[in-house]
Amino acid sequence: MTTASGVRCLLMRGGTSKGAFFLASDLPADPAERDDLLLRIMGSPDPAQIDGLGGAQPVTSKVAVVSPSAEPDCDVDYLFLQVGIDAATVSDRQTCGNLLAAVGQFAVERGLVAAGDERTSVRIRMVNTGARAESTFPTPGGRVDYAGDAALAGVPGTAAPVALAFADTEGSVCGSLLPTGRLVDEIDGLRVTCIDNGMPVVVLPEADLPDERILALRLEAGKLMGMGDVTAAAVPKITFVSAPQAGGAIRTRTFNAFQPLRRHPSIGVFGAISVVTAALLDGAVGHDLLVRPAPGRPFAVEHPSGSLEVEVDVEPGDPPRVRRSAVIRTARALFDGTTFPRPRPSGADDVA
Predict the structure, then answer these.
(1) How far is CA 274 from the centre of its chain?
(2) CATH of domain 185-327
(3) Residue 30 pairs with which residues in a beta bridge?
(4) Which region, left, alpha or beta, applies to residue 178 given φ > 0 means left and ψ of -120 to 50 means alpha?
(5) Which residues lie below 8 Å from residue 323, measured CB to CB, with a gap of 6+?
(6) pLDDT of amino acid 347
(7) CATH number of 7-169+332-339
(8) Which of 335, 337, 341 has the alpha carbon at shortest distance from 4?
């Protein structure tokens, strides 16, 4: 419901991200008008986002737009939008596996999907990539229960587990698992693997590089991956990998693709899945570092805040194929109400 002065919004934490969730019907249908509104709701451009809902970090400057799906095999459509902080940008060039963990619950809260008596599974089409996911979470008595004993690195306390299973994530943005057609490329004298299993990621061995060189590497990788000029895009992500240090499968350090460059406090769901996918490919960057878990156990991807457990099953070949991937996350509703956007200045330019 949109009023003359405000928009209905549910603020939710999904995984290690936080975002504003909207019904598509509560936002303008025109993308330019929608993005202009979202910038004013989130408080961008402003490094502090002091006049909006944004939290001055890429992981808290996110929006989910949800609507009933016309696809027969899906219940809802989920459009993810990354809202710029310092710049007036709204990007739909990636999806977000963290906010995805709250999409099913939002669909139930808004009446798009009927809750089961004990558990509910919601079939989700990720509009950004066309990939499918199924989210399963507890709904005892037909109501979403956010309380539980599942712990998530980077999130205080515990919450109810959310099981996410994915299909069709291979080449979700770039069109193929290995967008350059090679296991390894050399950029600026550095060996990298460019991979896309839900999110375009540039994987390279751990190194102490200045921000300017990382940004330049990302721009060149974007061209090699067929993405063109990625200056204003949120992907590809840059992830450094090294041997695990805390009993996991591989250690990572990821940078969000914004200027100024910002280190990711953890790692995104699809970022972790893409890194493990690369490490499973013989000859790719990270393959010699990967410590495989016991059969039936997930890969624990170490990151600065702890670790993220993912499941990835890859069929070797030329080209290799991804059979399935999955992850356990948590989510929580934080606030439900009306958000009031900053007034639009008279004569302001349209969103970039």
Answers:
(1) 12
(2) 3.10.310.10
(3) none
(4) beta
(5) 313, 314, 315
(6) 60
(7) 3.10.310.10
(8) 341
Q: Measure the CA angle with vertex 168, ends 166 and 173; round to 5°.
A: 110
Identify whether the C-beta of residue 134 lies closer than 8 Å to the C-beta of residue 124. yes
Q: Decide: helix, strand or coil at residue 58.
A: helix
- Give Cα 314 to chain centroid, integer Å: 21
Q: How many CB atoms lie within 10 A of CB 337?
A: 10
Are the CB atoms for 198 and 97 separated by under 8 Å?
yes
Distances (CA, A) of 10 to 7, 30, 257, 259, 320: 10, 21, 26, 29, 40
Kind of pairing between the strands at 200-205 and 237-242 = parallel
Tell which residue, 307, 313, 274, 316, has the closest CA to residue 295: 313
**The predicted structure's pLDDT at residue 351:** 47
Residue with tokens 């390279």: 204
Q: What are phi and psi of 33, to 5 degrees?
A: -65, -40
* pLDDT of res. 221: 97
Confidence at residue 1, expressed as pLDDT on a 0 to 100 scale: 53
pLDDT for the residue 352? 43
Helices (H) then strands (E): counts for the chain = 4, 19
Asked if the domains 7-169+332-339 and 185-327 are classified in one and the same CATH topology, the answer is yes
Return d(Cα 14, Cα 175) in angstroms, integer: 27
Q: Domain boundaries in the chain?
A: 7-169+332-339, 185-327
Tell me how far apart the terminal alpha carbons of the chain are, to the nearest angstrom.
26
∠ CA 72-272-154, rounded to 5°: 105
Q: Which residues of 170-209 are buried (b: 16+ CB within 10 A; e: fewer)?
A: bbbbbeebbbbeebbbebeeeebbbbbbbbbbbbbeeeeb
What are the residue ranges in the chain where pLDDT is below 50? 350-352
- Pairing state between β 299-303 and 62-68: unpaired
- Vertex 102, ends 269 and 268: CA angle to 5°? 15
**Rounded to two decimals, what is the model's pTM?**
0.81
Measured distance CA(168)–CA(68) in Å, rounded: 20
Nearest-CA neighbor of 292 among 259, 252, 247?
Answer: 247
Q: What is the pLDDT of residue 303?
A: 96
Paired with 307 in beta bridges are 302
